[in-house]
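Below is how a single chain appears once it has passed through the pipeline. First comes the sequence as given, then the structure the pipeline wrote out for it. We keep one example in the README because the format questions we get most often are answered faster by looking than by reading.
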Amino acid sequence: MKAIVVTDQAAGTAGMKLVERPEPQAAINDVVVQVHASGFTSGELTWPSTWTDRLDRDRTPSMPGQELARVVTALGYGTTRTARPAQSGRW
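Resulting structure:
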């Protein structure tokens, strides 16, 4: 799959690049979605959660994007939400 990723916080939007990424697999209680379009804000590149997780571990390369046009493509074992494969809309 193709994705826009950022790896260098100091580079800002100039550090974004389109790369090939592996297809994700649904883990326990996960939902995999196919994203058709995504939007992000420039401020997102300054959010600590873009670059590190809650234990302060590096998250790069990070894929920015908060608003998604998507379709659910897979559910992980134990998923109990109402999302179903091929369900579309906005979360």
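The CA atoms of residues 1 and 21 lie 5 Å apart.

See the next section for the split statistics.
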